[in-house]
Amino acid sequence: MRLQKPSLASFALVAASWLCWTDIVAALPASTDTCMVDIKGSSNSTLTTQCSADYETQRFAFDWNFNYHPLAIYYPSTVDDAAAAIRYAAANKISVAPRSGGHSFEAYGVGGRDGSLVIDLKNFQQFSVDPDTEVATIGAGTRLGPLYTRLNATGHLIPAGTCPTVGIGGISLGGGVGFWTRLHGATTQNVVGMTMINAKGEVIEVSKTSNPELFWALRGAGGGSFGLVTEFKVQAYKAPPVVTVIVMTWPVEKFRDLIHAYGTWGATVDKGAFAALVVSGTYVELMVNYQGNTEQTQAILQPLLNMTGEPTNTTTTEGNWWTAASLGGRGVDVENPDLQHHRNHRGRSLVYRGVMSDAEMDVIESYIYNSTKPETSTKVYVTYELWGGKIDDPEVPSVFDYHKGVVYSIQTGILWDVPGNKPGVDCAECTKWSLDFSNALQAVYSSGDKIESYQNYMDHDLPNAMDAYFGPNLQRLIDVKNAIDPDNVFSFPQSIPLKQES
Ligand SMILES: Cc1cc2nc3c(=O)[nH]c(=O)nc-3n(C[C@H](O)[C@H](O)[C@H](O)COP(=O)(O)OP(=O)(O)OC[C@H]3O[C@@H](n4cnc5c(N)ncnc54)[C@H](O)[C@@H]3O)c2cc1C
Ligand SMILES: *[C@@H]1O[C@H](CO)[C@@H](O)[C@H](O)[C@H]1NC(C)=O
Ligand SMILES: *[C@@H]1O[C@H](CO)[C@@H](O)[C@H](O)[C@H]1NC(C)=O
Ligand SMILES: *[C@@H]1O[C@H](CO)[C@@H](O)[C@H](O)[C@H]1NC(C)=O
Ligand SMILES: *[C@@H]1O[C@H](CO)[C@@H](O)[C@H](O)[C@H]1NC(C)=O
Ligand SMILES: *[C@@H]1O[C@H](CO)[C@@H](O)[C@H](O)[C@H]1NC(C)=O
């Protein structure tokens, strides 16, 4: 399939790396000719191959411990170029992995295995807010830090996550819980339209009225499974005039009181508040973010403090919402959240519909405090993020509605250092520790008779993961998958399958 005549610039690129192209082509099906350069497209689109100088800095996910080798990484600058690349991949039976912020817990933004064509959307940075409808148009390569700054400049916000390096692509296709989600719903529940390229390379509009089944499926199960979204239209909201963030810490011995108080208080607190609790080996920390001044924020916290007693340390920041959002970055340069920010990490999500049982707290005590940690680990933790509020009462149905009624989601995790700070280095001990901890917690799961988990914290080790993420929605998702991508061009180890696994 001839897509486009190679430009002179792209010809030079292929000539300089001829040997490597031969290697790549040798790995492709026999019918593939050597014209892969055709995906070079227009002059501002670029291609990183296995022999490009920057391949070793571009092939990793935010979680640096994964060591996958994509076939190539393509950075289209236009929708047409992205479409041509998808047609190329489909014709040559190559899996396509869209990448927005690269924060998939399983490195699915680079395919989650070797040999995918990564289509990185970093050149898609368009931004505007319609003054009448307050709908924001957001390029699919935008990360939350720069997005928050652009929104703040127009006096708006969208509900989304706390980490500035996360991409709008993954977060808004799989959920999106954090600042303002209790007030306005998960990010995905606020997506009102998308421009998507399907596996045939056709550009389609997806909304409540255009491709409605796909619209339902993309919002909650959309990451990497159905097509490549180049642009999001997201309902934005006027930013509140004053926002306060209070961060409190307690000594580790108080962890049971905090978990108990957090679940009890969180189930009924004003939905203008968002809160995250971190139980780690050295402290217990609670961060509360509220649309109000310091006094008002202290007032909504009082019932919780009545259960826990006063914290050892308290830091209060009153300001505008951007100041509050930037605190989530904890030192990351919000404006420059590039690929070089990283960590080594394994973790798992479980979601809860009420306060944890004593048995669950015993498991946390035993792993976080009493167990021997792997030598290289730098931190072990459980974080609790408050859900509910408007998440339970969305304007338009989506896959994400399966999680209505969840009080909080937890994430168990372990972080570690690698000597020399090299990417691609796994820690078998850490993975084992993480698995043992998550499995022990799961064995005493108190929140219903089967495990429920947040699909944006994907985990290939989670048994019955599809059921945990999507519940009764799975068959309908499979039907959408068959209709839109029957050849499974958009696939990775945990993508929506073409049929139920038996
Ligand atoms: C440090 C950290 C903090 C986090 N904080 C939060 C938080 O506060 N709240 C929360 O809800 N979640 C949070 N997450 C989870 C996060 O929402 C998911 O990991 C999300 O999938 C990341 O999106 P991404 O675009 O950065 O990642 P990517 O790895 O680029 O993408 C994730 C998946 O979506 C697909 N995808 C990405 N863009 C597109 C697109 N344009 N079209 C089609 N498919 C696409 C990818 O192929 C991949 O399968 C956090 C994750 C990390 C690592
Ligand atoms: C490439 O980018 C430059 C600078 O942003 C722009 O002026 C030019 O029009 C772009 N070219 C194409 C073909 O998109
Ligand atoms: C965010 O918006 C507020 C209110 O308009 C403004 O004062 C502040 O400077 C903005 N912050 C940034 C970082 O742009
Ligand atoms: C907290 O406890 C104090 C004293 O015990 C009581 O007066 C107050 O009403 C309680 N506040 C809340 C919000 O529960
Ligand atoms: C409280 O703050 C002090 C001084 O900033 C610090 O030394 C201490 O470690 C903090 N304690 C906790 C429990 O975070
Ligand atoms: C953790 O260790 C303490 C002190 O040895 C002990 O009292 C407690 O029972 C242990 N907890 C668990 C869950 O094993």
TrEMBL record:
<keyword id="KW-0560">Oxidoreductase</keyword>
<dbReference type="GO" id="GO:0071949">
    <property type="term" value="F:FAD binding"/>
</dbReference>
<dbReference type="GO" id="GO:0016491">
    <property type="term" value="F:oxidoreductase activity"/>
</dbReference>
<dbReference type="InterPro" id="IPR016166">
    <property type="entry name" value="FAD-bd_PCMH"/>
</dbReference>
<feature type="signal peptide">
    <location>
        <begin position="1"/>
        <end position="27"/>
    </location>
</feature>
<keyword id="KW-0285">Flavoprotein</keyword>
<keyword id="KW-0732">Signal</keyword>
<dbReference type="InterPro" id="IPR016169">
    <property type="entry name" value="FAD-bd_PCMH_sub2"/>
</dbReference>
<dbReference type="InterPro" id="IPR036318">
    <property type="entry name" value="FAD-bd_PCMH-like_sf"/>
</dbReference>
<dbReference type="Pfam" id="PF01565">
    <property type="entry name" value="FAD_binding_4"/>
</dbReference>
<comment type="similarity">
    <text>Belongs to the oxygen-dependent FAD-linked oxidoreductase family.</text>
</comment>
<protein>
    <recommendedName>
        <fullName>FAD-binding PCMH-type domain-containing protein</fullName>
    </recommendedName>
</protein>
<dbReference type="Pfam" id="PF08031">
    <property type="entry name" value="BBE"/>
</dbReference>
<keyword id="KW-0274">FAD</keyword>
<dbReference type="InterPro" id="IPR050416">
    <property type="entry name" value="FAD-linked_Oxidoreductase"/>
</dbReference>
<dbReference type="InterPro" id="IPR006094">
    <property type="entry name" value="Oxid_FAD_bind_N"/>
</dbReference>
<dbReference type="InterPro" id="IPR012951">
    <property type="entry name" value="BBE"/>
</dbReference>
<feature type="domain" description="FAD-binding PCMH-type">
    <location>
        <begin position="66"/>
        <end position="239"/>
    </location>
</feature>
